[in-house]
Amino acid sequence: MAIQHDHVAQRRATNITVSSDLLTTAKALKVNLSRAAESGIAQAVKKKQAEQWALDNKAALESSNAYVDQRGLPLSKYRQF
Q1: pLDDT tens-place string over residues 6-36
Q2: Which domain of life does the protein's organism represent (predicted)?
Q3: CA distances from residue 31 to 25, 28, 36 in whole angstroms, order as listed
Q4: 33-68 residue pLDDT tens
């Protein structure tokens, strides 16, 4: 189950290391570094959670796919298309 990000949670300071060229360009463009980092971290967390979900549910997905391969889709006779 994915843990939801609380957008109103208290913010905490931290240190990160980034490319000097990227930092210079971001500052020149007035990019909000904290928000940009937070957005990137949120995307990375979401991706890792999806990967973990797929690993955690691999056996169930394979079992379901094997069932459909052997027996067809349940209730397929009721499909209207």
Answers
A1: 778 899 999 999 999 999 999 999 999 999 9
A2: Bacteria
A3: 9, 8, 7
A4: 999 999 999 999 999 999 999 999 999 999 999 999
C-alpha to C-alpha distance for 20 and 10, rounded to whole angstroms: 28
Give a yes or no: residue 12 inside a domain. Answer: no
User: What range defines the domain where residue 35 resides?
Assistant: 20-73
Q: Give me the number of domains the chain comprises.
A: 1
* Distances, alpha carbon 62 to alpha carbons 3, 57, 67, 69, 75, in Å: 25, 9, 9, 10, 20
User: What pTM did the predictor assign?
Assistant: 0.71
* 41 within domain boundaries: yes
Whether 43 maps to a domain, the answer reads yes
Q: Is residue 7 part of a domain?
A: no
